[in-house]
Design goal:
Blueprint: E1 2-3, H1 13-17, H2 29-46, E2 51-55, H3 59-70, E3 75-79, H4 82-93, E4 98-102, H5 111-120, E5 125-129, E6 131-132, E7 137-138, H6 141-149, E8 155-159, H7 171-174, E9 178-182, E10 194-198, H8 200-208, H9 218-227, H10 238-255, H11 257-278, E11 280-281, E12 292-296, H12 303-312, E13 315-316, E14 318-319, E15 328-332, H13 339-354
Parallel strand pairs: 1-13, 3-4, 3-5, 5-8, 8-9
Antiparallel strand pairs: 2-10, 6-7, 9-10, 11-12, 12-15, 14-15
The structure holds pyridoxal-5'-phosphate.
Pyridoxal-5'-phosphate binds next to helix 3.
């Protein structure tokens, strides 16, 4: 089955073969080497010199960890869809005063509204969704950075779950403190791991926060990495990390990040052109995502039927998310998928449409 989902994505067999290697102990020198190698390559993916943390959880765990570990006063989530909404819930359910600045589905965060919000209350944590997977929209960091820059107390966390590895993040250029991503999206790994960068500023903030929990206490993970030669307090998904080491090495040193971003751009443009000719694309055309396309169901297709037709031919696609289910459907063009796979996919779609 070929996965055209916005995660999880298909994983190369060379990566899957890494799981056949003997399990290594998590307190060995080898384990430290695996983490060090992941760190060097994830720093390149995020565009940062800051420390890298690996979590044995999907990305949601690190989103929860970030807001809980680094909010002393009050958190603001700039939501442009379902995954931003989720981040506010994570804050509230951890007992953190968390407000939401919600853009309409298909739009980006308005820098003027962000400025108003930051003036109105004293926030020290701002969480922003980089690429909103429910609407296929990429927030514009150039527009948001100058506003956040005015508030030196703010720890800026960015959800790059469906963008890191598919498009540049440039963390240090923007002054982002925590970038978070999952294994199963643009990095083309199996689900089960997530990665975060953790800046010195985030470290200092977390030291002032009393109730950080335990498993997702990012300061605890950070200290352990620093003081115990790149290891973790509890047993991480070590075989998954071995596969990540292998795949990140491929991404950074074999394919190369620039080529990877270019390939994502080509797949996105090809699919979007096709979608425009056959349907319509959802959302503000100025800010379309390079890794996923949210398509308006202008032909009123019954999603379950179409999805079944695709499955019969060995493809998997996604319905619209939340409120957008039925009205839209989503196609992921991320990870190690190639342009020729997208061409094969649109050809199949045309056959299904003829029926
Ligand atoms: C998939 C996704 C998440 C959730 O990540 P999990 O790894 O499933 O926990 C969060 N944010 C965005 C933008 C996503 O695409």
């Amino acid at each position: 089955m070929k996965l055209f989902l916005p995660g999880p994505v298909s994983v190369r067999s060379e990566v899957l073969k890494q799981f056949e290697k003997p399990v290594i102990g998590h307190r060995t020198k080898e384990a430290s080497e695996v983490q060090k190698s992941i760190t060097i390559n994830m720093q390149k993916v995020f565009g940062t010199k800051e420390e890298i943390l690996v979590s044995t959880s999907s990305g949601t765990g690190l989103m929860e960890g970030a807001i809980r570990s680094c909010t002393k006063k009050r958190a603001l989530i700039c939501s442009i869809g379902s995954f931003g909404d989720l981040w506010q819930r994570l804050g509230l359910e951890n007992g953190i005063e968390t407000d939401i600045l919600r853009a309409e589905d298909g739009e980006v965060t308005d820098p003027n509204k962000l400025e108003e919000a930051l003036k109105a209350k004293e926030y020290d944590f701002v969480g922003i969704t980089h690429n909103e997977t429910s609407s296929g929209i990429l927030n514009n960091l150039d527009e948001l950075k100058p506003v956040i820059d005015k508030y030196s107390d703010i720890v800026w966390a960015l959800d790059t779950v469906s963008s890191a590895g598919g498009t540049p993040i440039d963390q240090d250029k923007y002054g982002i403190d925590i970038a978070i991503t999952s294994s199963q999206k643009c990095l083309s790994l199996v689900p089960g791991l997530s990665f975060a960068s953790f800046s010195q500023k985030a470290v200092e903030k977390a030291k002032t926060v009393e109730n950080r929990g335990h498993y997702f206490d990012l300061l605890l993970l950070y200290k352990y990495v620093k003081e115990h030669n790149y290891q973790y307090p509890s047993t991480p998904a070590i075989s998954n990390m071995v596969a990540a080491e292998y795949q990140l090495n491929y991404i950074v040193n074999e394919e190369g990040l620039e080529n990877r971003y270019k390939r994502h751009e080509e797949m996105s443009q090809y699919f979007k052109k096709w979608a425009n000719e056959n349907f319509e694309i959802f959302g503000n055309k100025k800010y379309l995502s390079p890794t996923i396309t949210c398509v308006k169901n202008t032909k009123n297709l019954e999603f379950d039927k179409v999805s079944q037709e695709f499955m019969n031919k060995g493809f998997l696609i996604s319905n619209g998310y939340g409120k957008l289910a039925g009205k839209t459907f989503r196609v992921g063009h991320m990870g190690d998928t190639k342009l020729e796979n997208i061409k094969e996919f649109t050809k199949t779609f045309e056959e299904i449409l003829k029926k």
